[in-house]
DNA sequence: AAATAAGCCAACCGCGAAACA
DNA sequence: CTGTTTCGCGGTTGGCTTATT
C-alpha cells in the first residue's frame, strides 16, 4: 500500500498557524463543511497539508471547544474513562464534548498520570483506584481463566466500575460548573447560531491575542506563537460563553469577524460536524429526547450515569454495552 | 541577572481503518 | 476482489513559558 505522505510536498508550511490561515480555514469549512480535507489546501490556497488543516480544525477552531483548566468533574471522568477505555482519547473525548482528544491526552500525560502515580502511592484504595484495580485485575486474570469464569469476573468488574463511577459522579452537586458546561453544550446543540458564534469566538479570541501580542514590544516570540498561547492561557472565565475579545479589546472583534462571514451558511455544516464528532449516539438521543419531551437540559453526568447504571443496557444495547468498551481483542488468548 | 531544568501544549508523524475506484 | 486514497487516531516532538538554582 504505497501511500504518498501528504506532507512531503515542497512548499508545505509547518509550525504554528497564523490568524490569517485560521480565517481561511474557517471560511472554507463555513462554505463546504468539515471534510474533504484533501481538497482544502488547493481550494483555499493554504500552504498546509490536509492533515494539518483537519487537525487545526478539530483541535482548535471547531465550535464548542472549551479551553482552560479542567474541572474536578472533568478530571474524574477522564480518570474513570481512561481506566475503562485505556488510551482511547477520541472515545474519551466523546464523553467530554467540549474537550478535544488532544487536550485530554495532553492533560492526562502532563497532570493526571503523575497525580495517579502520586495518589497510588499514598492511598490504599478509593473509588477511583478500586475501579483501576478492578480493571487491572480484569486484564491480568484473563489468561488463566476459562471463558465462563472470565465472564463472571467481567460482570463483577462491570459492577465495580459502575459503582465507582456512580460514586465519582455523585461527588459533585447538581449546580456544579460541569453541569453549567453541559447546559452550554446542550444549548449549542439546539442553537446552530450559537455554534457559529462559538467558532467565531475562537477566532476572535485568537485575533485579539494576535493584536495584543503584535503591539507588545517585549515578547517577539509571541507573534510566532500567537494563537496557541493566547488561547491556551485563557482561564475558565473566558469559557462561560462571554467573549473576552470585546471586554478586553474595545472594538467588537466578534462583530467584525461575524461581518466577514455570514451566519446562516455555516449553520448546517457546523451542526453536522458537531453531531458527528461529539457525543455518542446514545447520549445525543437521550439529550434530544429529553429536550423534546420536557424542554429541559439533562446533565451529561446524569445521562452517563444512567447509561452505566442501567442494568438493561447491558442486555438491550450491545452498541453501548460496557463489555464492548473493554475490547475482546485485547484478550484473544481466551477464545 | 543569567543559566538551566521542568512543565506544558500545539503540531507533526506514522499507522491502520474505512471509503472509494 | 484488489489496489489506492483519504481520514482519524494515538504517540511523540519541538519550542515556548515558568520555576528553580
TrEMBL record:
Low complexity compositional bias, start-end: 214-230
Polar residues composition-biased segments: 231-245
Name of the gene encoding the protein in the UniProt record: THM6
One Pfam family linked to the record: Myb_DNA-binding
Residue intervals of the HTH myb-type domain: 9-65, 66-116
Disordered as annotated region, ranges: 214-249
Gene Ontology CC annotation, any one: nucleus
Annotated Myb-like domain residues: 9-61, 62-112
Keywords associated with the record: DNA-binding, Nucleus, Repeat
Source taxonomy: Eukaryota, Viridiplantae, Streptophyta, Embryophyta, Tracheophyta
Cross-referenced InterPro entries: Homeodomain-like_sf, Myb_dom, Myb_TF_plants, SANT/Myb
Name by which UniProt lists this protein: Transcription factor
Protein's organism: Solanum lycopersicum (Tomato)
GO biological process: one example: response to auxin
A GO term, aspect molecular function: transcription cis-regulatory region binding
Subcellular location: Nucleus
